Amino acid sequence: MAGPIEALGDFIVAHRQWAAPTFGLLALGESIAGLGIIIPATPILFLMGTLLGSGKLDVAPVLAWAIPGAVAGYWLSWFVGLRLGHRIYHGRALKRHRRGVARARLFFRRWGGPALILGRYALGPFQSMLPLVAGVARMDARRFNAWNLASGVTWVIVCLTPGYLTAKGLWAAGVDPRVERWMTAGLAVLSVGLVVAAFAGLGWRAWRERNA
């Protein structure tokens, strides 16, 4: 898997002028209920951290696009849930993802606003379902916007930081660029795996407590 990620990194650097806007759109799409199932912005964000740390991309444009994209995507999902209410759960769009919707509803009921932060690090339909569930639950706009902004900022920064710091350390140590590329790509794969494992453990614990 490190090979394709390395190739993707090379492609991003070759088209760096479009990197930040494109990732902003990816962050937007991954945060929208339904689209988040097929858009893998989280793994790409880890990769972006390595490119920022190695100086191949600028930090400010990436943050300026990624954070608003993530926040806007969650807001759109919340707004749809608020407007359509419970009937959205029975629509054709979510018919194939009833289990993910049920898990998101249970998770939101348990954690409330913090679920919007914790859920950012999940892959698959669960992540993008949480703001939709918040809307259906009639979470008020002021409270939702506060948690949404906090979740968007922390998600982007937390995902960028491991790759950024590792790339900075490898560059400072004078590691061969070819070795650096493979190590940073491997880190991206490992980081995503750790996040998924941690979230799976959290979900399993909540499920066991629920069914104890």
UniProtKB/TrEMBL annotation:
GO cellular component, one term: plasma membrane
Signal peptide: none
Transmembrane segments: 25-50, 62-82, 146-165, 185-207
Any Pfam family the entry gives: VTT_dom
Keywords assigned: Cell membrane, Membrane, Transmembrane, Transmembrane helix
Chief location: membrane
Record flagged with keyword Plastid: no
Residues annotated as domain VTT: 39-164
Topology within the bilayer: Multi-pass membrane protein
Record-linked InterPro entries: DedA-like, VTT_dom
Name recorded for this polypeptide: Membrane protein DedA with SNARE-associated domain
Species in which this protein is naturally found: Sphingomonas jinjuensis
